[in-house]
Write a structure and sequence with these properties.
The chain has 13 helices and 13 strands. With 369 residues, the chain is an alpha/beta fold. It has an 8-stranded mixed β-sheet with strand order 3-2-1-7-8-9-10-13, sandwiched between helices. A 3-stranded antiparallel β-sheet has the order 5-4-6. It starts with 14 loop residues before the first strand and ends with a strand. 45% of the residues are buried.
Length: 369
């Protein structure tokens, strides 16, 4: 949906994307094709690398994932690209600056000068001519704590692991994660963006350290649950070593439900190749019902990789946004309930084939489960 293709109320759709790291970068690369009104809400629990050093030495929120989100939304004009390249540049060598990203240092310095991490982000966003905003999930740096099994001789015994890097790299299976401090505050501007959103997108990304943390901030979860926006959950293309090794697609959904039992989304986007047609899709459908969601199967991967293709993902999200507009018009004309929030495993045509795939021109496109 280009900026000329307005939403049903005469403007570009307001899109909020939540996540962190490379997963959020992929989502932002897709949604920027659909709207100029995009807000990224970014996790702030990273404790490794340059981000970890800066949060420990200066007490700032970890800037790395925030920097990547700014780069994903930066203008593509040549006059801006050199700034984006500089912000993303990482120093080499063996000295004190080795491993630090220029953008991380800029954000840390601006936070000290301006006294506000959000104002620092807005300042860099203006430099990169970002159409939208990048905001932290919380104004305070958070820590992730996890219960991990498989580290003791008794497989039933869990061990408490603290820190994002430790959780992501410790052998064993993560059962549950928590945030420290417990019940942290949410960024007020992020809450306002979700309140005003037409579409809210969560994922993909590291499931326990980039996706689930968003539903562990009470104010953030409450606002997402109250928001009338269409909510879309994008699943990873494959399990992630360390965090979700051995997880099925269905298991990802169960884990999210365990951490936020009352959370509801409208659609779960799953790459077609990651879940073959058959009983496994029935399992995914049943798991999606716990979230009140329909499952959308589509080809969204870069060929030969486990990365999402920005163009393919944008096409699926555009279709969802257009369907939202069409349903809103029907409700306005006919009145009554639009039926959102009711899980479905059927296809759009009302047939009974739960695993039927639609094809266009010989290529697979989004099908509605």
């Amino acid at each position: 949906m280009s900026d000329e293709r307005r939403s049903g109320i005469g403007r570009v759709p307001r899109i909020v994307a939540l996540g962190g790291g490379h997963g959020l970068y992929a989502t932002l690369s897709a949604v920027r094709r659909l709207s100029s009104d995009v807000t990224a809400v970014v996790t702030v629990a990273d404790d490794g690398g340059s981000s970890g050093r800066l949060r420990n030495e200066l007490g700032v929120i970890p800037p790395g994932d925030l920097r990547m989100a700014l780069a994903a939304l930066a203008a593509r004009e040549p006059r801006v690209q050199s700034w984006t390249d500089a912000v993303q540049h990482r120093f080499g060598g063996t000295g004190a600056l080795a491993g630090h990203s220029v953008g991380n240092l800029i954000l840390a310095g601006l936070t000290e000068v301006l006294g506000d991490p959000v104002e620092a982000l807005d300042t860099v966003a203006r430099l990169l001519e970002v159409e939208g905003r990048v905001l932290p999930m919380s104004p305070v740096a958070l820590q992730i704590e996890a219960d991990v099994v498989g580290l003791e001789s008794d497989p039933r015994v869990s061990r408490c692991i603290r820190g994002q890097v430790a959780v992501a790299t410790t052998p064993g299976k993560v059962r549950r994660v928590r945030l420290l401090p417990a019940n942290p505050p949410a960024c007020p501007d992020a809450l306002q963006a979700i309140d005003a959103a037409d579409v809210v997108v969560l994922g993909p990304g590291s499931w326990f350290t980039s996706v689930i943390p968003h539903v562990l901030v009470p104010e953030l979860l409450d606002t997402m649950m109250r928001s009338p926006a269409r909510k879309v959950l994008i699943l990873n293309l494959a399990p992630e070593l360390g965090e979700t090794a051995g997880f099925s697609t269905e298991r990802h959904l169960h884990v999210l439900c365990q951490h936020a039992p009352d959370f509801r989304v409208d659609h779960v986007v799953v790459d077609s190749a990651s879940v073959p047609a058959g009983p496994e899709r029935d399992d995914v459908c049943r798991a999606a019902k716990q979230l009140g969601a329909q499952v959308v199967y589509a080809d969204v991967a870069e060929e030969g990789t486990h990365k999402h293709h920005a163009g393919k993902l944008a096409a699926v999200l555009e279709r969802l946004a257009e369907r939202e507009t069409a349903e809103a018009r029907l409700v306005e004309v006919h009145g009554g309930n639009d039926g959102r929030g009711n899980a479905s495993c059927g296809n759009d045509s009302g047939g009974n084939d739960n695993t039927a795939e639609r094809t266009v021109g010989g290529r697979e496109s989004a099908s509605w489960q």
